[in-house]
Amino acid sequence: MNALEVENISKSFGDFYAVKNLSFFIPHGIIYGLLGPNGAGKTTAIRMVMNIIVPDEGNIKVLGRKIDEKMKEKIGYLPEDRGLYPKMKVGELLLFMAELKGLKREEAKKRIDFWLEKLSLQDWKGKKVEELSRGMQQKIQFIVTVIHKPDFIILDEPFSGLDPVNTKLLKDIMLEMKTDGCTIIFSTHRMEQVEMICDNICLINKGKMVLEGNLDEIKNQYGKNTIVLGYEGEADFIRDFKEIDRIDDYGKYMEIRVKEQTDAQDLLDKLVGKIRINRFEVKEPTLNAIFIEKVQEKNAKDSISN
Amino acid sequence: MRKILSVIKREYLQIVRTKGFIIGTILGPVLMASFIIIPIVVSLVSVEKQEYISVIDLSQNIFVDLEKKLDAKLKDGSPRYVLEQYKLRGDVEELRQRLNERVLNKELSAYIFIPENISNGGEAEYVSEHVSDFDKIENVHKAINSVIIERRLKVGGLDPEKIGKYMKPVGLKTIKVSKRGEEEDTGGTFIVSYVLVIILYATLFYYGSIILRGVIEEKSSRVIEVILSSLRPFQLMAGKILGIAAVGFTQYVIWGLFGITAVTYSGALISGLFPTAGSFKIPSIPIYIFIYFVIFFILGYFLYGTLYAAVGSMVNSEKEAQQFLFPVSMFLVIPMLLMVYILRSPDSTLSVVLSLIPFFSPILMLLRICVLLPPFIEIGGSILLLIMNTLLMIWLAAKIYRIGILMYGKRPNFKEIVKWVRYK
């Protein structure tokens, strides 16, 4: 059984299609990356999954059936537009949110203490939310999402505004939850995070699916046609080589996509002596490169068909 | 249902604990009481002092009579007004100049200028540094007036004393007849109706704006989406409105206790403190008025509460809300403007029709019930219409709310709102 089945959903606001004919399936117990540029329709899709807005067409099944109010008690949701009641005390707020998820008071109180301790926020329990820093509020928001031990959680940009230490803390919790059998949708446009933790991904752009599947398989499809070149010196001349498909230059290193049937060794020979080479690695393209390519490819196609 | 209860509890505790609520609940009755008590106290304790007034009498012969007429006494028995006559020597303007200076130097509180032709249409003048003490000016005016009229009557060969007797005003008592029989009404009906309607009006506005602020807070703090991952929008809206209703109930109970205490003890208190104030009678109010008050408050609250919730969901800030609030506020303000008309002719066809219109009926039907008990068919009809309209508005508001609370950015126009209602 899949944790989530989205079949052919569409949603328009007036003339604007936010999501069009979107389908994807998420198997149990994986971390699923939902990717897409800003305004791609990720939030609308997630809101439809959460039954906050109703799709114009299509079906959504969460944990095997149509979502209802009871079902929401098994789901955790961290929206991108996050917010808490600024005037409430942290402990009261968490209790209220836990009650809305159907938890009994006593049980909720125990878990609140457990989570505050785990995220080292126990000293803030009696403080008002508005007195907390952004990062702390973010962690409170995370507790709200997981306090009821959901089987399925949706995290929309969960790490934005967090320092590396807290990012790691939350990431570890996510992996722990995955081990416990929880299914996680992770929506972001930070590709390096996706590469680190996602099993499957779905890339959407302008409301439509562009790419979907197992992350490793997707990368394998592209083959080892990418060269990561760490360099010092003036390297612009590489752009003139005929075997180059595209270059993403990051200053200290560049990602070079070569045309098919190019021998990376030949390229290396051409570079030796011209620049100082610190690193030369042949590998699959990064998700970042795939993302940019796919989005640009699609936008180009759209502008032609228009 | 348990989740709605959680929402109700949260709303209630959040509001009841605010300083605004505590102050408002205590200050409300204090303010009300002070409206009644302060003027009484002020009039009882204010000290009047002797005033010097000069009179330039160009008609030459009314000073003596005027002095007799202005015979008000201070508490210690000395005359309140001390008049001095100014004999005119030389130029009038020069004299006035001198008197003006004396007024400015506070030697005189005023001077009165009586022209030669005062008996045949001339106007007297009252000159003072401040001309806002209407009471004093009225006294002076009356005195001059009666002196001149008596003068005219005498000239015409009539006896002012006899004429005074003939012209004595007739008294008119107002008696209200109802099923309970006859009762003398010294304006009690008017005061009770007025106070009840003002309370209804003010609290509908007040709780409405609390709901509005709450919805906008949830929207602007973006907590709304988290809440909606646990609840349907309608559950949240219902919980909020019911929670604030509980706040209102608490406030009314506290005010009610204040009120009962005040009614029980205030008469005794006032006459005890100030024996001169005379007996102080609180008009008795039939119990059915309170019952209808509660019914119309509850229905009016749900009607306006949902409208305020819908408005809150449409906007991004309280400032933006003002424009949408205008029509809602008009529904509340119009009945207040019609109040005088309804009080004058509570059983005219227009009054009956107006009091049946659901948006107006909480205020207008209650007003009619206070003034004269209309036939039950009219009251029942207005309640039925009000309930139907309230249900319709809840349905409509829920549709707007569910879309509106997730919409940020541009303020929607009317066309878009109609579209929201039609969304699946």
How would you describe the overall organization of this protein?
Chain A has nine helices and 13 strands. By secondary structure, chain A is an alpha/beta fold. In chain A, strands 5-6-7-3-8-9 form a six-stranded mixed beta sheet, sandwiched between helices. A four-stranded antiparallel beta sheet of chain A has the order 11-12-10-13, with helices on one face. In chain A, strands 2-1-4 form a three-stranded antiparallel beta sheet, covered by helices on one side. In chain A, strand 6 (152-156), helix 5 and strand 7 form a beta-alpha-beta unit. Chain B is of the alpha/beta class and 424 residues long. Chain B is 67% helix and 7% strand. Chain B is built from 15 helices and six strands. Chain B has helices at residues 2-16, 19-45, 63-69, 92-104, 134-155, 160-166, 188-220, 224-228, 233-273, 287-314, 318-344, 349-356, 361-371, 376-404, 414-422, and strands at 51-57, 81-86, 110-114, 125-128, 175-178, 181-184. In chain B, the strands form two sheets. A four-stranded mixed beta sheet of chain B has the order 2-1-3-4, with helices on one face. Chain B has a two-stranded antiparallel sheet with strand order 5-6. In chain B, helix 1 (2-16) runs parallel beside helix 9 and helix 7 (188-220) runs parallel beside helix 10. The longest helix of chain B is centred in the middle third of the chain and has 41 residues, at 233-273. Chain B is elongated and about 95 Å long.
